[in-house]
Amino acid sequence: MMMKRRKSIPFHIGLTIVMLLFLMMLISLFYTPYDPNMMQTNARLAKPSLEHLFGTDNFGRDILSRMMQGSQTAFLIGISSVSVGLFFGFLIGACAGYFGGWIDELCMRFIDALMAFPGILLAIMLITVFEPGIKNTILALGMMSVPTFARIIRSSFMQTKQFDYVKASKAKGAGSIHIIFKHILPNIVSPILVAATLSFSGTILAEAGLSYLGLGVQPPDPSWGRMLKEAQPYIATAPWYVIITGTMITLMVLGFNLLGDGIRDQQDKKS
Amino acid sequence: MVEPILDVKDLDVSFTFPDGQYKAIDSLSFTVHSNEVVGIVGESGCGKTLTSLAIMGMLPDNASITNGSICFRHKRHLVSLSEKEWQSIRGRAISMIFQEPMTALNPVYPVGKQISEVLIKHTKQSRKAIKEQTIQLMKQVGLPRAEALYHSYPHQLSGGMRQRIVIAMALIGEPDLIIADEPTTALDVTIQSQIIQLFRKLKQEKKVSMLFISHDWGVLSQVCDRVLVLYAGQLVETGPISRLVDEPLHPYTKGLIRSIPDRAKRGEPLYTIPGRVPPLKERHRGCPFYDRCRERMEICRTVRPKTVNIKEQMVQCHLYTEEMDVPSS
Question: What keywords sit in the KW lines (chain B) (predicted)?
Fold first, then answer.
């Protein structure tokens, strides 16, 4: 029963964008055209040219180099905060979905409380109480995505729990932990993967937003969101700065959204 | 007399709803002896599956045992076990065969792994020994090329093969009791007869004791020694399978037997018992079968009949009394 798997076009576009950005991040670990923090006062706000492909910013720093290093931060924050969100989301969602009853009630009311605050507001609050920086940004953005993960994982658990093979495994004498990790988790990987991919782009956007407000990543760590903020005063004199930075953020978000949608389409086709 | 493997006494299982408790199984008593296959028969909603779940300690959250005892060999009382104790019994002492071979196997694991899971859980043998034992058993349940099949995934197997895998899964722990919940219902007729042959073979060779739930008298008569007839959570009649088929006493058993399609009845409309099993919330104190009974009397409406022994059969009906020797009709 081999089914011919046709991947959708959005899936391919998304995958290509994400792979290219990832490649850019990898290269930046070893090589950037210029030192991202080197200032050239004689070449401030230079137009894109062969020397500076994306031009320079208000301090004469090479935008391409800063962009490349900024992608490290974007990926770091994206991956870490999705992991944080996934970890706590799984913990809460799995307990709620598997055990049900009053444990479910308790977990879901907690999630409801978390959802009552708009995510970005919650993140701003956390960062203001603690201090801005990469670590706290990751935690704050992770917390922001916990409710989504918890809900998706809970409903997947409730659905999978009904299947006979879960009952059969219980009838074989398996304990709860074994059933949760060995029998249910492998069967709900795809919805989790879709949620994680889609949440990735949301996280990147939120990070850019926080950094734009000056609450996210702090200098000297480069960040796309802060670059956008820095570019704002020069929108008339050096429009490429804003355009390039904005385009990068858009590409990243678009890439992960298309990828997530593509995976979901495929999953729908299978079932 | 030998000590029974399973001794269920006065078992009550109730569902708790917001508006109160309702008995779904009402003072059920029966025993299963060593190397005996006991069938449970009845319409849907009579409590067959609930009985098996109660014995496995896997009742749904809103159901509980409200009275009676389930005594497993060596005088272990199953009703008061903790979840941890249950885990050591399930799979090892009592195991279960599920109805749907399509859903009883986890799609993401090779079937061999799923069979050996029981041994990994309950014994301390090496992985290699476990694998060998699994393959050995897969051959015994009639799976060809067991070595290759060990690594196959459920979707690569046919329904009959999957059911053999499920049966192997129940046998591997060498349990004292196997509960089979309609193990042949989801299979087509040819595969069904092969699986029945397998059960007969297992009974002879492995000396298994089984609780066999079915609503197919044909299947029951081929594998069972004794049959319990359940109606609305109550045991209405029990006895050796041959006696029940030839001379059913309870009007409900008579109805069930009459509604089996038969070549001799060709051309006649198939007999059905009028009405339906009373829903959980509408059961009254008299005989549960009163509403649908063809031989009902006034007493049946208000008084629950006592259990009467007639030869090897036991029946719960006002038509019979202890002194009676042979049924009148």
Answer: ATP-binding, Cell inner membrane, Cell membrane, Membrane, Nucleotide-binding, Translocase, Transport
Contact call for A171 and B118, based on CB within 8 A: no
B38 and B89 share a domain?
yes
Domain A9-25+58-270 has CATH 1.10.3720.10: yes
CA dihedral (B37, B41, B47, B48) in degrees, to 10, reads: 40
CB distance B35 to B207 below 8 Å: yes
pLDDT in tens, chain A (271 residues): 344 456 678 888 889 998 998 998 888 888 877 777 777 777 777 777 777 777 777 777 888 888 888 888 888 888 999 999 999 999 999 989 888 888 888 989 999 888 888 878 888 888 888 877 788 888 888 888 889 899 999 999 988 888 888 888 888 888 888 888 888 888 888 889 888 988 888 888 888 888 888 887 777 777 888 888 888 888 888 888 888 888 888 999 999 998 888 888 877 766 5
Residue B71: CATH number of its domain = 3.40.50.300
Q: Is residue B186 part of a domain?
A: yes
What residue ranges do the domains of chain A occupy? 9-25+58-270
Q: Containing H/E element for A239?
A: helix A239-270
Closest Cα to residue B236, out of B169, B138, B314, B147?
B314
CA–CA min distance B90, chain A (Å): 4
Size of interface A-B (CB pairs under 8 A): 66
Q: Do the interacting molecules here have an ipTM over 0.90? A: no
* CB atoms B169 and A172 under 8 Å: yes
How many domains does the structure of chain B reveal? 2
Q: Are A119 and A144 in contact (CB under 8 A)?
A: yes
